[in-house]
Amino acid sequence: MSSTPTHQPLRQTVPMSRLDDDHLGLLGHLNLMEFCRESARWSAGAGAVTEADGMLFFQTGTDIPVLCNGAFRLDEAVPAADLIEQADAWFGARGRGYTIWARAKRDDDLVAAAERAGLLALFDTPEMVCDHRLPDVPLPDGVEIRWVEDAGTIADFVTVNDGAYAELGLPAGTVASIIVEPSRFLVPHVRSAVAYLDGAPVAAAQTVLSHSAAGVYWVGTRPDARGRGIGEAVTRAVTNLAFDLGAPANTLQASTMGEPIYTRMGYRTLFRYQGLVRFVER
User: Fold this and answer.
1) Most buried of 56, 74, 119, 176, CB within 10 angstroms?
2) End-to-end CA distance of the chain
3) Is the pTM of this model over 0.90?
4) Cα three-residue angle 187-189-191, rounded to 5 degrees
């Protein structure tokens, strides 16, 4: 199969400070795909990425189909049925299910084809953007934010998110099965942070810089530490770090719990993703 470029470069005549929402949406979509590639890399030998014929497939260190294994259409000219057929073959050979990320309006044909093929429309999430640096505010009492830079802080990042995402349906140990390769996790374009309350790790967030923008991922707060503004504080930290490193915008895909917090912080919705999931029988 012949390789296909992942995107067309933006015109050099468009200043990054004046990107319109269509450009911001494209950068956010490309950044999400790069995060998925990175997730496969963090999974060491259990991860895999294939890009060919206008399609991207990735797997991580867990076989959970929701979010952790997925398929994207790199080229919108690829017929929706072809993506689903190839995804079924690629993941089927691995005994896995997968998620297709479909953008509202732009990928309506993909949504229709996926539903006809029996995929389940499992989630609907906003793609949000912040195009300005957020005001610096004092941290909540007893809170310290540390940047992830060694095995110890990686372990704290994993522990926090393993507990936080269990409430969203990810089984215990899922995050640890994805983040297993420190040398790939500690790279200059991936910056992660952990918030500590009285010395104990309680919240975490991450920014991934790619395609001239940044994306916020793995935002999580331990259930017993919620409601104190700690998750917002660590999200603000990674958001502003990305701006300080030169990103013109930060994007993220918000959970139902996180959406009002991000809106209050200064993020706004560009479009919505629909997550279409192929489950496989065990």
Assistant:
1) 119
2) 31
3) yes
4) 75
For residue 151, the one-letter residue type is: A
CATH superfamily of 143-271: Gcn5-related N-acetyltransferase (GNAT) (3.40.630.30)
**Around 280, how many Cα atoms within 13 Å sit in the side-chain half-sphere?**
17
Pinpoint the residues of the chain covered by CATH 3.40.630.30: 143-271
pLDDT of 54-109, one tens digit each?
999 999 999 999 999 999 999 999 999 999 999 999 999 999 999 999 999 999 99
Query: Which of the residues in the chain have pLDDT under 70?
Result: 1-18, 282
Q: Provide long-range contacts, Cβ within 8 A and 24+ apart, for 9-17.
A: 10/212, 16/212, 16/248, 17/248
CA dist 30 and 43 (Å) reads 20
pLDDT for position 4: 32
Among candidate residues 213, 217, 262, 247, the one with its CA nearest the CA of residue 60: 217
pLDDT at position 10 is: 30
Q: What is the pLDDT of residue 94?
A: 97
Q: Angle at the Cα of 217 (from 216 to 221), degrees rounded to 5?
A: 110
The helix (H) or strand (E) run that includes residue 66 is none
Concatenated DSSP letters for 49-60?
EEEETTEEEEE-
Q: What is the pLDDT of residue 192?
A: 98
Considering only the C-alpha atoms of the chain, give the largest distance between any 2 of them, rounded to a whole number of Å.
Answer: 56
Half-sphere exposure in the Cβ direction for 105 (13 Å, CA): 5
Can you spell out the DSSP letters for 211-229? TTEEEEEEEEE-GGGTTSS
